[in-house]
């Protein structure tokens, strides 16, 4: 008997926009429907990917190297974790995916959209999340929230202009893919955001349960 493939959800946004705050809650909501969920993250999600994450977050490197390693980790992640889970009917909830490369490497690091599109087309020409929630807040809010966070990594140490470019690249991507990417105004209460996410989840459950 063929298994109905699971859905792929990603959460994204500049550091401090608030996505991690909703991750566990989202997973619980999906599990409450009796659906098995694989929770994972990028860069990371596999043993090699987690090693690459350590390097990416803490080791200085050329900008192109950084982009290539993001996609190298992603390639492992897709083939070892994401694709098998979806094929088994599990849902995958991923803390960041390729939109982060378009935003941070394409925008923040100024490698541009074309270079990212080339890597994306090579690594996952036929796979995109079924839904991406892009958390967006004014930069001042994100920075203020990060002040209270732990030791900053290589990205979190970047200047304001870097995050401005990153945020703009995210929003451009959302404009280009309005069906998939839903922008969440993260400058609201956690409850208000959850209400919106919960409506979005209900749409996904409906889509998933519809007969093929
Ligand atoms: P991200 O994962 O996007 O970097 P986090 O979810 O870790 O961001 O949130 C960063 C900080 O902001 C945390 O201290 C968190 O408690 C706080 N935070 C998250 N969402 C909100 C919100 N809607 N209102 C106020 N503070 C928030
Ligand atoms: P994240 O796990 O969100 O960090 P934290 O646990 O501190 O919230 O993401 C790690 C960093 O990696 C984040 O600053 C964004 C960056 N990143 C990229 O630059 N490009 C990418 O493709 C991905 C997936 C992440």
UniProtKB/TrEMBL annotation:
UniProt-listed Gene3D superfamilies: P-loop containing nucleotide triphosphate hydrolases (3.40.50.300)
Thymidylate kinase-like domain span: 11-195
GO biological process, one term: dUDP biosynthetic process
Catalytic reaction annotation: dTMP + ATP = dTDP + ADP
Annotated residues for binding of ATP: 13-20
A GO molecular function held by the record: ATP binding
CDD domains, sorted: TMPK
Assigned GO CC terms: cytosol
Keywords: ATP-binding, Kinase, Nucleotide biosynthesis, Nucleotide-binding, Transferase
Enzyme class: transferase
EC assignment: 2.7.4.9
Entries under InterPro entries matching the protein: P-loop_NTPase, Thymidylate_kin-like_dom, Thymidylate_kinase
UniProt record similarity statement: Belongs to the thymidylate kinase family.
Summary of the function given for this chain in its UniProt record: Phosphorylation of dTMP to form dTDP in both de novo and salvage pathways of dTTP synthesis.
Name of the protein described by the UniProt record: Thymidylate kinase
Organism: Candidatus Paenalcaligenes intestinipullorum
